[in-house]
Specification:
The complex is a heterotrimer. Chain A is an all-alpha fold. Chain A is about 65% helix and about 0% strand. Chain A has a single domain, classed as MetI-like fold, CATH 1.10.3720. In chain A, helix 3 crosses helix 13 and helix 12 packs antiparallel against helix 13. Chain B is built from 15 helices and no strands. The chains are: A mainly alpha, B mainly alpha, C alpha/beta.
């Protein structure tokens, strides 16, 4: 009910009390709404143009066969293209490779991050130096990490090649048996810093009195770990799994720099396949089908994780 | 040991170590236990640090030294000129500049759009508020890689191929940012809001004088997070530029990695140079970094 | 938490609004066919406006030329271009280096979708059908006809390569072909005649066996898994790669390499690797690992493009590898009524360019392929001089007498039979086929696939790729 002047009236703050007033001045309400829409407009515009529109457009692309060169017309083929692509060996290979990549990188990444965090969680002299080192890979970009590993895996002079006893043989990155593993190792290493930081933060947040209580009850370090640490960390682990899964589905840079989808398509994850279809073959139609599939898989993964994993998460009281 | 070296905490107190077992179980002397722990820590640290270490070492070796077996793990005759070669051949000066410009644009834009949107959601009432909020959250469900090639067509058609604008456009706003800042805004004490209202603060003033300063940790965290994401972006700059004038350093690394074998030390030097800015920045802004990366992880 | 987080908030309303958003967005999308051209593809008269540059009002006519020549190749090209610009007032050529053929082609495709096209481009050999299907190039034949230009002095196979259905599409410019690189020192040590390197697949095998037995090298031969091995060896045996006269009589619809020769080639590679006589150094992509294998005494022979002569002599002669004396010989392969294929790249005139620029391009092309310039070009780069008369000029004569290994590539092109097989395959989805072949050969060499099944699968997948491409081209 405070009114300090006409100008102020126009810019008064909203009454955000739970019980709305019975009578509102239309002017104030709509001015507030207008302000809100204006504030939301920039972000919303970006979202419409660069998220929703292209998402919808995928569905349109999927119904057309695009010519090998831009500038020539597309032909409508309806669902034929979609069913052709979904049934094609290339597509199924990409899905499988992507899932495999996820299985290789996410669990190990979390496990290692957790292990490092636990180890670095001790009160030892100089522990902070170790913590810095453990988080250091967060400062490497995907590209930098990939170039490092690419060069270290050079079949003629690479150090890792030498240590693996493969000097003079076909490159690890060109061998269908090892290429995906090499890409996964690079990814795990590069993500280690992030994983460590997340797990560490989770560990820090566990109240000491829980450990105290456990110790008083006579629990060993191992027991404390399973009875206190893991349950209290479960939200963090859950978060890391969900985020890690999504990131794994989005992987591109390391594949482009290490293997370019090969050898024999063994590292042709979905995103890379999309890239190739668009920029090598100008095949927007096929790429769109892949993109929709990618989205669906991400949704499914997240949904299942929410549904089944979240049950086992114990949230703080 | 550099005891005062970067401390990575979220401000929580240093916890008791997990290694105080009940006395009756203790067979091994504490000294050995501690030694074992240090050994394990050191081993892991060496393993993790090794690729970075060997990159720096190799950047200072001669090509035949890199190829020598058994391998040389320390530069006895440092070739400092590889760095100037990498800088020139790899055109790193230009690429780093481009990366900085684009990243700056994206970070500033994301901060602004997130603050604006968060303010609307946190402090204003308007029709369709809940719906619009869900729309914002919905954007988080669509990974960039699902829509990147349509965005390529869009940006290309708009004429922004090979431009800073084109490099930044799809990333000017993020639902995550809006969400993060909104969380922080919601915690603004009610009495502050009432006081500001009494003092006749308009929304703009309130936003910048009260809400934002109070939300500074979250906003700083968002800034670091945005910076990391924008700096490391690889796919988009790869497809939306092909002119060296606008290439970012991540894509420049690709070019560097394909140089010939007698230039392998230059490649390594290039990687070091390209990574330095990030290392420095993260060293300075660790706290914000941790907060930014863990937003959502700890609270659950 | 505020009321916004209540999960009971009307999800129905959300769903409706979300759908509306999506639908609106879709409606905003360009209707009537995704990818309709932003600019109507200039059909043009298909005629070459010879003389338009001279008559142009704004002289000199600015010509933008996209190429992919690097290092010494670029230097020589620049030299020739400067000479051209200085020699006349009608045309001024601006060189734009696009770094690699694939980057150039990608950029060109992007420009086709609504960007700035150049006036003259250099496309690599395999892009021939793509160039035609893009409907964006003016066949050089039109200019040859309009200008009454004689192609007699050219090495026949180079013109044949770029001629489809009787029309010369692009003008060959930088021509290379694969040659045998071998280490003469290693040969001597193993008791082989360094002046008589192998000429057949059997010969490679025998020589490798001797090298390995004598302990001179770990393996005898290093394989660079380039797909053109299959193409070249089939051509050498006189066999086509695709049907319809290797794609030259009409558009190819299927592969033809799944035959005895194809299997022979694959079996050779597999046997060599399995019996430890060859090392597979993997996919090309600018790597020279097969050369390094020679440098490291892992092998003593490899087949690679003559265009690499400069790089090879530089790297292996840099003093880093004192155990190597490089020898160059014609590419060994299966015997038959065939010969080596033309490799390299050609020049294409862009149809959309203005008339005077098209003529400007033609004048520049004529300059570049004149005997004098071809002599300079060949001497400066190692590419094969296209004009037979150029080989009599001092630049080439000097090159060949001081560095006789540069003559090998030329000799290979003028010997053998000129037929559909040696004219080379014309395939739309060339890169796709090459990928399929590499994949199958890799599987064969690393995953115990039999040569026969590898070739068969490659053919099947190749056929599928051709069908898909043809269906998208509407032809």
């Amino acid at each position: 009910m405070t009114d300090t002047g006409a100008a102020e009236r126009a810019l008064d703050l909203a009454e955000s009390r739970p019980a709305p007033r019975a009578r509102h001045r239309l002017g104030r309400r709509s001015k507030e709404a207008l302000l809100a829409y204006l504030l939301l407009l920039p972000a919303f515009t970006v979202f419409v143009v660069f998220v929703f529109y292209p998402f919808a457009r995928n569905f349109e692309y999927a119904l057309y066969k695009t010519p090998p060169f831009p500038g020539l017309p597309s032909t409508y083929v309806g669902f034929d293209q979609i069913s052709d692509v979904l049934g094609s060996e290339d597509f199924r290979n990409s899905v499988w490779v992507t899932i495999l990549f996820l299985l290789y990188t996410v669990p190990i990444g979390i496990f290692l991050g957790l292990g490092l965090a636990v180890l670095a969680h001790q009160r030892l002299k100089g522990i902070n130096a170790y913590r810095t080192i453990f988080s250091s890979t967060v400062a490497t970009s995907v590209a930098a990490a990939s170039v490092i590993f690419f060069t270290l895996l050079n079949p003629q002079v690479g150090l890792f090649t030498y240590w693996l006893g493969r000097e003079g043989e076909i490159s690890v990155l060109q061998d269908p048996k090892t290429a995906l593993i090499a890409v996964s190792v690079t990814t795990i290493w590069q993500n280690l810093g992030l994983s460590f930081i997340i797990m560490s933060a989770g560990l820090q947040a566990i109240p000491d009195d829980l450990y105290e209580a456990a110790r008083v009850d006579g629990a060993s370090a191992w027991r404390q770990f399973w009875r206190v640490t893991v349950p209290m960390l479960s939200p963090t682990i859950f978060f890391a799994t969900v985020v890690g899964g999504i990131l794994a589905f989005r992987a591109f840079g390391q594949i482009d720099l290490l293997t370019e989808g090969g050898p024999v398509q063994k590292t042709n994850v979905l995103v890379y396949a999309i890239y190739r279809q668009v920029f090598r073959n100008n095949n927007d139609g096929v790429a769109a089908v892949y993109a929709i599939a990618l989205f669906t898989l991400v949704m499914l993964l997240t949904f299942f994780q929410m549904r089944f994993l979240e049950r086992r998460v114990t949230y703080a009281r | 040991m550099p005891a005062d070296a970067a401390v990575l905490t979220t401000g929580a107190q240093e916890p008791e170590p997990l290694d105080s077992p009940p006395p009756e179980r203790d067979r091994v002397t504490p000294a050995i236990r501690v030694a074992v722990r240090y050994a394990l820590l050191t081993l892991l640290a060496l393993l993790i640090l090794f690729p970075i270490y060997i990159t720096v070492v190799n950047s200072l070796l001669k090509p035949d030294q890199i190829a020598s077996r058994p391998p040389l793990l320390f530069p006895t005759d440092p070739q400092w000129d590889t760095y100037s070669k990498a800088w020139e051949q790899g055109n790193l000066g230009r690429y780093l500049f481009n990366s900085f410009v684009v990243t700056a644009i994206i970070v500033v834009a994301q901060l602004l759009t997130s603050i604006f949107a968060a303010y609307a959601f946190a402090f204003l009432e308007f029709p369709l508020k809940r719906t619009l909020f869900f729309v914002f959250i919905a954007t988080l469900m669509v990974p960039f890689e699902v829509v990147f090639f349509t965005n390529y067509n869009t940006v290309n058609d708009l004429g922004f191929y090979n431009t800073y604008a084109g490099l930044a456009l799809p990333f000017l706003a993020t639902g995550f940012g809006a969400f993060l800042v909104r969380q922080a805004f919601l915690v603004t004490p009610r009495d502050l809001r009432d006081a500001a209202q009494l003092d006749g603060y308009g929304h703009w003033r309130f936003m910048w004088r009260v809400a934002v300063p109070l939300a500074r940790p979250a906003i700083a965290a968002l800034a670091v997070f945005s910076f990391l994401a924008a700096w490391g972006e690889y796919l988009w700059p790869l497809i939306i530029t092909d002119d060296a004038q606008y290439r970012t350093v991540q894509v420049g690394l690709r070019q560097l990695s394909r140089t010939s074998i007698d230039q392998i030390n230059v490649t390594f030097a290039g990687v070091v140079l390209a990574s330095l800015p990030l290392f420095v920045l993260l060293l300075v802004f660790q706290k914000q970094l941790v907060r930014g990366l863990t937003a959502g992880a700890v609270k659950g | 938490m505020t009321k916004l987080d209540s999960r009971s908030g009307s999800p129905r309303r959300v769903a409706i609004l979300a759908t509306v958003a999506v639908v609106i967005s879709a409606a905003l999308a360009v209707p009537a066919g995704a990818g309709t051209p932003d600019r109507a593809r200039a059909q043009g008269s298909g005629k070459c406006p010879v003389g338009a540059a001279k008559k142009a009002s704004g002289k000199p006519v600015e010509l933008t030329f996209w190429h992919a020549m690097n290092r010494e190749l670029e230097t020589t090209l620049e030299k020739l271009t400067d000479q051209f610009n200085a020699s006349q007032n009608d045309v001024k050529v601006t060189l734009v280096n696009q770094v690699s053929y694939s980057a150039l082609f990608d950029k060109y495709k992007a420009a086709l979708g609504g960007g700035d096209l150049p006036d003259l481009v250099q496309f690599e050999d395999t892009a021939l059908q793509s160039a035609i299907d893009s409907q964006s190039v003016l066949p050089v034949q039109a200019c040859v006809k309009a200008d009454k230009y004689s192609l007699k002095d050219f090495i026949a196979r180079t013109i044949d390569y770029y001629t489809v259905e009787g029309t010369l599409i692009g003008m060959p410019f930088n021509v290379s072909n694969p040659v045998l690189y071998y280490n003469k020192q290693a040969f001597e040590k193993a008791g082989l005649d360094p002046e008589k390197p192998p000429t057949t697949l059997e010969g490679i095998k025998e020589a490798s066996q001797k090298l390995v037995d004598a302990g001179v090298t770990t393996k005898g031969y290093s394989i660079k898994l380039d797909p053109w091995y299959l193409e070249q060896w089939l051509a050498k045996a006189g066999k086509t790669y695709v049907n319809k006269g290797n794609g030259r009589k009409s558009r190819a619809t299927a592969t033809t390499f799944d035959n005895a020769t194809g299997v022979e080639v694959a079996t050779f590679l597999k046997d060599m690797v399995d019996s430890g006589l060859a090392v597979n150094t993997g996919k090309p992509e600018g790597n020279i690992d097969n050369m390094l294998a020679i440098g490291n005494d892992n092998a003593a022979m490899t087949i690679d493009t003559s265009a690499n002569l400069g790089t090879v002599t530089q790297v292996l002669g840099s003093g880093q590898f004192p155990n190597v004396t490089i020898g160059v010989a014609p590419m060994p392969g299966p015997t038959g009524k065939g010969g080596v294929l033309v490799g390299g790249a050609a020049l294409y005139i862009v149809k959309e360019a203005a008339k005077e620029k098209q003529d400007a391009a033609w004048q520049y092309i004529k300059y570049l392929v004149a005997p004098e310039q071809q002599a300079t070009w060949g001497a400066g780069t190692g590419y094969v001089p296209l004009r037979k008369s150029a080989t009599k000029l001092p630049a080439i004569q000097e090159l060949w007498s001081t560095k006789p290994y540069f003559k090998v590539a030329y000799d290979q092109l003028v010997t053998g039979v000129n037929n559909d097989a040696t004219a080379g395959p014309v395939i739309g989805p060339y890169q796709a086929i090459r990928e399929v072949v590499i994949d199958e050969l890799t599987a064969m060499l690393t995953q115990d696939k039999s040569a026969k099944s590898a070739v068969k699968t490659a053919a099947q997948k190749g056929n599928a790729a051709i069908e898909e491409y043809n269906s998208r081209v509407g032809g």
